[in-house]
Amino acid sequence: YCLLLYLLIVLISALVGDTAILLGSLKYQAFKNLHSLIVLFIQHIAVCDLVLSLTFVAPIALNLLADGPLLKEGLCNLYVYVYHYFLYVDLVFVAAMTTTKAIFLKYPHCDSALIPLL
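^ that's the sequence the OP posted. Answer follows.
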């Protein structure tokens, strides 16, 4: 029951947190002080985290609740590929955001060169 409680807390906090990030950045412009490229990375990381939470944490929690496997073999294979794809995409977004932040710190007045990339 401890693992199930932990997974449910992770799932709920991921859903609430990522939804708040997406809603705040898209609807309310909460990150207006940040560079638009950084905000774009934050939004994509939030989407990847939502997909990871729904494709990794939720099925494990459902299997623990049902006290047995709920996913058929085809869905399990799809689950593995989706999980690995979004995990690595999430890591690349974090690396890209960190690199972009370092470039902005080193060259604070030259960030207009990145604007055509948006």
